[in-house]
Design brief:
Layout (H helix, E strand, L loop, with lengths): L1 H14 L14 E7 L18 H8 L1 E4 L2 E2 L5 H10 L33 H7 L3 E7 L17 E5 L20 E2 L2 E2 L8 H15 L5 E6 L11 H4 L8 H26 L6 E7 L22 H4 L3 E4 L8 E3 L3 E2 L3 H8 L16 H5 L10 E8 L2 E8 L2 E6 L4 E6 L15 H15 L11 H19 L11 H4 L14 E10 L5 E9 L7
Parallel strand pairs: 1-8, 1-9, 2-11, 3-12, 4-5, 4-8
Antiparallel strand pairs: 2-10, 5-6, 6-7, 9-10, 13-14, 14-15, 15-16, 17-18
Helix pairs in contact: 5-7
Length: 527
């Protein structure tokens, strides 16, 4: 089966049109793709944060383009990474949920990014790049899914989702620990994973500074658990709330590591020949992160769950110090990297993103308008959806069990639901979502997302209800004087039934529903 998968992989890579067109091997830029984990939109200085120091990211932002409407392709970790590294909507190939830890290979049903999918590393390696993956993988724990079998020449990191920053396995399967290629790394040699990943990235650049390289640096910071070194905690000693101080230290530690990586690129004389991309895999986590001014957090399709810090820097090629408002998605990074490497991404019609180079290099260019789509799985063939078309955004929420419509031009904070005022937009965007979803497939495995978001919604509602329980009635409110007799013609009468307990409810679409209780008169009044 693995031999057939490799053959299929080779054929798919061939379809990408990987022959370089204009750029020679020595002139092709290095590509460094840096991913943060659960980072809040407003937890970096270039998006306005004042309490967490991120000077190195801010410097990168000043040297390149910041996308203020940059989106992850999914509101949580593993599906988002699957979309990033394939350039395709992850729902196309059934990667719609986080895989549960499972190091055993069970054939094609094993949870993980399908082996039939071509990764960005596959494409760039075929084009002559040396490729390295460092950090969190989260695209399958069984060995056939590991990065060094998915197009990466080198790998230093761990395969799963959340993991101790000290490298402690506890009672976990040893295969879930940190690896260098296939070899496990002794936890005693690790310091703090953020620092360790930064060190490995610096060494990778030093080893390959004379050849074009693709470095995928996927930090697990600032994902839980909340672990930080004393040195990093000193950077947020001014933050009085302890949980926020620890989270901020994890962000600051990642920023420091990114600074080391950028310094090495410059020391190697590669500053103007390296494209650096930074973004977060989804919105900030519920605890301690700040997605201000946007609504929601990781796991949601409100802006706070999918709009993320997003920048591209390539001194001398990409515009500097610019903010671009065009909506983009992480799916755009695959074709952009191919174009930067001198390849023609249009030769692969499977890619769902757009090449961003024109808008990155020329301020007169504009990206063609296109809708952006999202879907998460709630389990049991139930899904939540969102679509953004221009400034209209429709969310079909499964935990709120309704559709919400927002005008992001006037309400980017998603405070005012306009679904009742604009049913024509709800209908139009719903048709667009249905057409897009027709090409998707069900998730190959499930996760706890549906259960968790419903718990969050219930917890929120309980907190709101609890807060108002002590409210007293207005002493000047005379309800008796406000009650008027019901006219005979307004009574609901059925000659065959006793009727009581009637009430009227107006639905969000304007439809009125009458609820009442009844008892057959023929049985006599037995109440």
């Amino acid at each position: 089966m693995l031999k057939r998968s490799r053959l299929l992989l080779s054929l798919l890579v061939g379809l990408l049109g990987l022959s370089t067109s204009v750029v020679g091997a020595k002139d092709r830029p290095n590509i460094v793709l840096i991913v943060a984990d659960d980072l809040g939109y407003s937890d970096v200085g270039f998006n306005g944060c004042k309490e967490i120091p991120t000077p190195h990211l801010d410097e990168l932002a000043a040297s390149g383009v910041v996308f203020t409407n940059g989106y992850a392709s999914h509101p949580y970790c593993s599906p988002s990474r699957a979309g990033l590294l394939t350039g395709r909507h992850q729902q196309r190939f059934g990667h719609g949920s986080n895989p549960e830890p499972d190091t055993q290979w069970h054939g094609e049903d094993t949870p993980g990014m399908p082996l039939s999918e071509t990764t960005l590393a596959d494409a760039l390696k075929e084009a002559g790049y040396v490729t390295g993956a460092i950090g969190k993988w989260h695209l399958g724990d069984a060995k056939p899914f590991w990065p060094n079998r998915r197009g990466f020449d080198e790998w230093f990191g761990f395969s799963g989702g959340g993991f101790s920053y000290w490298g402690d396995l506890g009672m976990k399967d040893p295969l879930l620990g940190v690896h260098r290629g296939d070899e496990p790394v002794d936890p005693k040699t690790l310091t703090h994973l953020t620092d360790d990943f930064s060190t490995e990235a610096v060494k990778f650049i030093q080893r390959h500074e004379t050849e074009p390289f693709f470095l995928y640096l996927a930090y697990n910071a600032p994902h839980a658990p909340d672990h930080a070194t004393r040195a990093h905690l000193q950077k947020t000693a001014h933050i009085e709330y302890g949980g926020r101080a620890v989270y901020g230290a994890m962000v600051a530690g990642m920023d420091e590591g990114i600074g080391r990586v950028v310094d090495q690129i410059r020391e190697s004389g590669l500053g103007e020949n390296t494209m650096i991309i930074f973004y977060s895999d989804n919105g900030g986590r519920r605890e301690h992160a700040v997605n201000f001014p946007y609504r929601g957090h990781k796991g949601m399709l409100f802006e706070g769950g999918i709009r993320v810090p997003f920048l591209v820097s390539w001194p001398g090629t990409v515009r500097s110090g610019m903010k671009e408002e065009s909506p983009i998605t992480a799916l755009d990074l695959f074709p952009t990297a191919l174009a930067a490497a001198g390849m023609d991404p249009s030769q692969n019609d499977k890619l769902d993103g757009q090449n961003l180079l024109p808008v990155l290099t020329d301020d007169k260019q504009r990206l063609p308008e296109r809708p952006l789509f999202w879907r998460y799985s709630m389990g049991d063939d139930s899904y939540g959806y969102a679509v953004r078309d221009g400034n209209w955004k429709l969310i079909d929420s499964r935990y709120k069990d309704r559709k919400l419509l927002f005008d992001l031009a006037n309400d980017p904070w998603e405070r005012e639901d306009l679904a009742a005022q604009h049913p024509e937009q709800v209908a139009r965007l719903s048709r667009m979502m249905e057409a897009w979803d027709a090409r998707n497939v069900p998730p190959k495995w499930s996760d706890a997302h549906g259960v968790n978001v419903r718990k969050e919604e219930n917890t929120r509602n309980e907190a709101v209800e609890k807060a108002s329980r002590g409210e007293r009635s207005r002493p000047d409110l005379d309800l008796h004087s406000m009650i008027e007799p019901v006219p005979a013609k307004a009574k609901f009468i059925d000659k065959d039934f006793y009727i009581w307990g009637g009430s009227m409810v107006r639905d969000s679409d304007g439809t009125c529903h009458l609820f009442y209780s009844r008892w057959p008169r023929g049985l006599g009044h037995m109440a």
